[in-house]
Design goal:
Number of domains: 2
Helix content: 55-70%
Shape: elongated
Order of helices and strands: HHHHH
Distance between the termini: 37 Å
Number of strands: 0
Structural class: mainly alpha
Largest sheet: none
Number of helices: 5
Length: 99
């Protein structure tokens, strides 16, 4: 999230600050365009985050109800590689069971 969400939000917000009419038809706040473009960009950021949160929430709720989001404690201790694939991913390392 910090890479895509924050950087994407900054890129979108910076259009409201640094836009030049020669490139996009409007000026940003720092080029004499006023706050209208900045407000438009803020609305876009808010809409994107609301959509992303809502869609993710629905997907995670469906997963939680159907197959579950967590492995059992026993599966975690045994190792998900063994539980899911039937073999150890790192057989040369000592397992928790033999430690």
């Amino acid at each position: 999230v910090s890479v895509h969400g924050v950087c994407g939000a900054w890129g979108t917000l910076s259009c409201g600050l640094f836009a030049e009419e020669a490139f996009g038809g409007v000026n940003g706040l720092l080029f004499g365009g006023g706050v209208s473009q900045l407000i438009t960009q803020l609305i876009g950021i808010g809409a994107f985050f609301a959509w992303g949160f809502g869609a993710s929430l629905i997907i995670f709720l469906i997963i939680k109800v159907t197959v579950g989001l967590r492995a059992s404690e026993e599966e975690e201790l045994r190792g998900l590689d063994i539980t899911e694939h039937g073999m150890a991913a790192y057989p040369y390392l000592q397992s928790l069971e033999s430690a």
